[in-house]
Amino acid sequence: MSAPVYLILGGARGGKSAFAERLARHLARPVLYLATATPGDPEMAARIAAHRAARPSDWRTVESPQDLAEAVRTHTRPGDTALVDCLTLWLSNLLVFRYRLPVEGEAVPEDTWREIEREALREIADLIAAARARDAALILVSNEVGMGIVPSYPLGRRYRDLLGRVNQEAARRADSVILVIAGMPIDLRGLVPEAFRPLLTADAPDPRSDEQTGDRST
Length: 218
Known about the structure:
Blueprint lengths: L4 E6 L5 H11 L4 E5 L6 H13 L5 E4 L4 H8 L5 E5 L1 H12 L11 H24 L3 E7 L10 H20 L2 E6 L2 E4 H4 L17 H5 L5
Parallel strand pairs: 1-5, 1-6, 2-3, 2-4, 4-5
Antiparallel strand pairs: 6-7
């Protein structure tokens, strides 16, 4: 059996990153930490420095704001654990640095949004496949953004929708999906009734309500 893939979800300051790091230590494998944050301002730079200082000294760190699958192929060794923190910032980097989207989301053609979504989902699948090919355990950290206030501006709403799709794709391909609330982990896949589990596989049909009804809320 190949090394496991975990998706760790949660809200801001809910403890998801701390749990992911505890999980990485628990797996007792050499850890490669793939950091997706970029120091865009002094406050973010300070956050990055604090996170880096808090990691165990034997963990290897690779700054990988965009090309996660390539980082896994290049830097992981069989038997490693690759910890990606986080997909939330990775997707933001994709929009800002690769597609250079304008602040006003309505200026972006619908075809471009669909291209971005296809590319993001393809890259998630490639990332997980790369880890499995290297026999490296993979821990993906991401924010659950669909349960809060609807963003007031178009780009924010599009970003929320895209991250929701990314999380769904990662969850379908992961062996374990853990929701962390107030530091407490909940095994989401384990809660799914047996009768519905065949619908969770990566090759299961993925109904797209927005394509069928125009509703982008799911």
